[in-house]
Amino acid sequence: MGKNIENKKFIITETREPAENEFIFTNGNHDDGEKRRMWNYLERVFGIVREDIPSYLISKDNSDNSMRGFRIIKLGENDSYSPYND
Questions:
Q1: How far is CA 17 from CA 25, 29, 35, 77, in A?
Q2: CA-to-CA distance for 49 and 42, rounded, in angstroms?
Q3: Considering only CA atoms, which of 24, 25, 70, 78 is closest in space to residue 50?
Q4: How far apart are the C-alpha atoms of 42 and 12, rounded to whole Å?
Q5: pTM beyond cutoff 0.85
Q6: Cβ atoms within 10 A of the Cβ of 55, count?
Q7: Which of 24, 46, 51, 69 has the maximal Cβ count within 10 Å?
Q8: Rounded Cα gap, residues 30 and 35, in angstroms
Q9: 69: nearest Cα among 55, 85, 83, 84
């Protein structure tokens, strides 16, 4: 998980796998597997789902780069997810 120039031992990444509720990201890199694992955990444990916000509703940043967004929706005990539940 990244360069270890000083040869330090990092407990989580080198002696054991991250626990179910521990998530580690490298700066500047897209670690889609770890992000997916985090979202699966949050959705399962907290009863939430994500809904993408359409790109036409989101402005670009100051460098003219597109941004992504999503809404967090908390599901009730008897709810099922639909993007039209508002």
A1: 14, 20, 15, 32
A2: 9
A3: 70
A4: 20
A5: no
A6: 12
A7: 51
A8: 9
A9: 55
What is the SS3 assignment for 32? helix
What single-letter amino acid sits at 86?
Answer: D
pLDDT string in tens for the chain (86-residue length): 456 566 555 666 667 777 887 877 766 556 678 888 888 999 999 999 888 888 888 888 788 888 888 888 888 766 555 555 44
**H or E segment and range at residue 51:** strand 48-52
Q: Which two structure tokens, joined as six digits, stand for 62?
A: 């100051």
Count, residues in the chain: 86
The 8-class DSSP code of residue 19 comes to P
Residue with tokens 């990244």: 2
The first and second tokens of residue 78, run together, are 């008897």
- Residue 16 has what DSSP assignment? S
Provide the token pair at 84: 């039209």
The identity of residue 66, as a single letter, is: S
